[in-house]
From TrEMBL:
Coiled coil: none annotated. This is Carboxypeptidase-like regulatory domain-containing protein. The lineage of its organism: Bacteria, Pseudomonadati, Bacteroidota, Cytophagia, Cytophagales. The keyword Transcription regulation does not apply. The keyword Signal applies.
C-alpha cells in the first residue's frame, strides 16, 4: 500500500515555479547588539513564504529568492534569547549588511520546587509505524530556489491534561541520508490550532549523528520546563545545519523522515518549510513525544 505523505504541496507554491529560473542571493550577518559577537544559528525568513535560512557559526547567512520577489516583503531575523528584527527584502538587496539583535529582557524566574507526588506520563505517541510519515524530502515548489533544509520545522500538537514537568523529548527517525544534523528543540503555545508563542527561554540545540535512525532522545531535565493543565502546545524540531551524504546530488536524493499514524482523529502534526513560512496542519499522529512527570494542582481555598 502506498504510504501517505505528510507534507502536501501547497497550491500557492505553483506561482513560484515560473520565477524559480531567475533567482538571486540575499546575504548578511547577524550580531548581538550588546556585544557585537556573532549569533550562530539565528533564523532568517521571508514572512509567509518558504524562503530563508539560518546563520552559520560566524553569524553569516545567504539564501536564494526569486528575482521577482516584492521588495516590500518582510524579513524576520530571530533567535531565542533575542528580540526579533524586522526589515524588508529591499534592505537585504542593497548590500551585504550587518543586523544586530538586542537581547530579550528576561524576568527573574521563580524558584520552582517540584511537587512531591509525581506520576510519569507520556504526551504524544511513543509507538512506531503507521501509513504516514513526516519528511524533509517533500516541500512546496519554492524548493527550486530554496536549496537546503535550514529553517525547516516539524512539531506534534499536544494537549496538556494535567500539569507536569518535562523530562525529555523523543522522536523516531526511519530514514536519515545526512551527515550530522544540528537541530533546535522548539516548544510553542497554540492559539486556535496555530503556534503563536515560543515557550522556551533557553536556546536548546542538539545534534543527530550521521545516518542515525531509531529513537532520538533529548534530555530536558536541566531546563525545568513546566506545562500547565489546559495548555495546548506543539513540540518538535527546527533544522539548523546539516549536509547530505552525497553533496550536490539534487533535492530529491536524500531525506530525513519519521513515521506516523494516519488517519488519526484528534491528532495533528505541524510542518513548515522555513522559519517564517505558513504552517501546514495535517491529521497525523507522528512518533514524537514528551516524557513528563505529572502532578495534581492543589485546590485553592
Amino acid at each position: 500500500m502506498m504510504r501517505v505523505r505528510v507534507v502536501l504541496l501547497a497550491l500557492a507554491g505553483c506561482f513560484w515555479v515560473s520565477l524559480a529560473l531567475q533567482a538571486q542571493e540575499l546575504k548578511g550577518r547577524v550580531l548581538a547588539a550588546s556585544s557585537d559577537k556573532p549569533i550562530a544559528f539565528a533564523t532568517v525568513g521571508i514572512r509567509g513564504k518558504a524562503l530563508g535560512s539560518t546563520t552559520d557559526e560566524r553569524g553569516y547567512f545567504a539564501f536564494a529568492v526569486p528575482t521577482a520577489l516584492p521588495g516590500t516583503d518582510s524579513v524576520i531575523i530571530s533567535c531565542i534569547g533575542f528580540r526579533a528584527v524586522r526589515l524588508t527584502v529591499s534592505q537585504l538587496r542593497r548590500a551585504e549588511g550587518v543586523w544586530r539583535l538586542p537581547p530579550l529582557a528576561q524576568a527573574l524566574g521563580e524558584v520552582r520546587v517540584r511537587h512531591p507526588q509525581l506520576q510519569p506520563a507520556v504526551l504524544g505517541r511513543n509507538a512506531v509505524g503507521g501509513m504516514a510519515y513526516w519528511t524533509t524530502k517533500i516541500r512546496d515548489s519554492t524548493l527550486t530556489v530554496a536549496r537546503d533544509e535550514r529553517g525547516w520545522e516539524v512539531a506534534t500538537v499536544l494537549p496538556v491534561r494535567r500539569s507536569c514537568y518535562v523530562d525529555s523529548f523523543r522522536f523516531y527517525v526511519s530514514q536519515n541520508d545526512f551527515q550530522p544534523v544540528r537541530f533546535r528543540f522548539v516548544l510553542y503555545e497554540l492559539t486556535e490550532g496555530r503556534p503563536t508563542r515560543q515557550l522556551l527561554t533557553d536556546d536548546i540545540q542538539f545534534t543527530l549523528p550521521r545516518q542515525q535512525t531509531g529513537w532520538a532522545t533529548l534530555d530536558l531535565r536541566a531546563y525545568n520546563i513546566q506545562l500547565r493543565k489546559g495548555q495546548t502546545v506543539a513540540a518538535g524540531i527546527q533544522w539548523l545545519q546539516g549536509e547530505k551524504l552525497v553533496p550536490g546530488s539534487g533535492p530529491q536524493s536524500g531525506a530525513l523522515s519519521g513515521p506516523g499514524a494516519f488517519p488519526s482523529v484528534g491528532h495533528r502534526v505541524l510542518v513548515r518549510d522555513k522559519s517564517e513560512a505558513e504552517w501546514r496542519s495535517l491529521p497525523v499522529n507522528v512518533s514524537m513525544y514528551l516524557a513528563v512527570q505529572e502532578y495534581k494542582e492543589a485546590k485553592a481555598n
